[in-house]
Amino acid sequence: MAQFQLKSLRDLFVVVAHPPDPDSQLVIQQFERIGCRTEAAWPIPRDLPPSTDVIVAAIGHDHHKALKTSLKRAGSSRPDVIALADYENPAMLELMLDLEALAVISKPVRPFGILTNLVVARNLSITNKTLLARIRRLESRMEGQKKIAKAKSILMETQAISEKDAYKIIREQAMTKRISIDEMADAVIYAHDLLSGRTNDP
Amino acid sequence: MASVLQSEPISVGVLFSETGITSVVEKTQRRAVSLAIDEINANGVAGEFELKPVFCDPASDPKRYAAEAERLIAQGVRFIFGCYMSSARRAVLPIVERAGALLFYPTLYEGFEFSANCVYSGAAPNQNSLMLADYASEHFGGRHYFVGSNYVFPYESNRIMRDLLTARGCTVLEERYISLDPSADDVAHIVDEIDRLKPDAVFSTVVGEGAVRLYQQYALQDQTRARSPILSLTTGEPEVEEMGADAAEGHFTCAPYFSSLPGSANQRFVTAYRSVHGAHAPLSACTEAAYFQVYLFAEALRQGGPDHILQNLPVVEFGAPQGRVRVDRSTQHTFLTPRIGRVNASGTFDVVYDHGIPVRPDPYTVEPEESGWSRFVGSLR
Fold it and tell me: Which strands make up the sheet holding B102-105, listed edge to edge?
């Protein structure tokens, strides 16, 4: 499993989205001590500063929508969220969950623990991304297996050949045409649908 | 305007161990604080304020440090000078933080800490490990052996040193830990292993009594000792005196201060200290840090009174025995000048490397390499 490299801490760009007050000041100062590039952003901008890695966000109803919007607009470069919380009642916890916060800094802010939260959040984020990529890979592999099975059964039925031979044909054709076995299986399925007059809905 | 010495004396806690495993160094820190307070009061360095020391002996036990800190706070003390081991500092800080008091901590440590209620005047890793790694890789071979006392400072120091040496193409043969109060067997086992592995140098983060026993046992192995010098961040004259100069000769320490440094400020300090405690009384970087931080405090006190110490500290620059020092506002750690000394036959250090200018403290550096040199070497002005 990929792990967060402590050495990369100083490459992080942290945005603190919290009304300016002594607590947010302490947070900014501590991230600066740690050596991260740090910027305050309040009110919450429609677009977060480019290449924001981590956003430390105030939790509250007033600006929740704005925060959600700017996170959504960041798309695939959505930063990791660390919540800066002063209540732990369920209404506030719901907001925090809705932001998919990976760590929480609680108020009143103490410098101790901020580094730990940052490291935990980054590690979770990397783990999540790795797992997601793996799930996508497995899904597409499963999809491919299904297609190959279908293409094989078409060939077995129409050509009256064994499963082994059917696979061999698909593989050889894929090699000659320099395409993947998946793609070849697709071609077989499309061709069959076409010849048998069916639409090629999946 | 108030005239001189009209204010109530300012009580300052002096929290160093007179007994126990780290008393070797802490005794000198206590004496240095005491000396500084006497000088400051005699010369009116703190202006209208007089400093009144309140001494405690926490006996090298973190629980006792906490108890003594509680006692000081209960007496109304708001400023404490003290602590050597990280475990003691961590025990005292929550108490100091709760009370809104201030701890002056005059000891090198492993970094990765900031408390608004602490002023750190010992070296952070970017002010010693980096220079020691450079020196070790240039002057000794590439095979190193690590031994440390079993607590937080050695673990983090070794992590850093391993990174630094590896980046310089060196290898670490073994990384061993022994108890803070090691038995003769523990120490003999380490020395045997070094004898067998024949490293080019031994990086030791063994502290206090343990260091005394390690160097003494090591001295019995003539060949090994000649081949593999011990490199340390902590071993200073107090430890050397305890173990005997003949056991320490030829080994190296990286620190911001050695008593052999030139300069009139150091002359004055050494003379004053030794006139009270003996012509050969040992001094280390921890002793000097304990001394100059009282001066930094006194100057900040003079400038803005007891309620604005932290605001005023970063603007105070003091000609300490090691040279100019100043507290960095952002980290509350101190600009210090790194040096490397080699123990000579008389038990003092010959300076073999001098960084020449104060280095900005960078307590959160994971990799001193990329951030160290160019980014954080800065002169005071």
Answer: B51-56, B10-15, B79-82, B102-105, B118-120
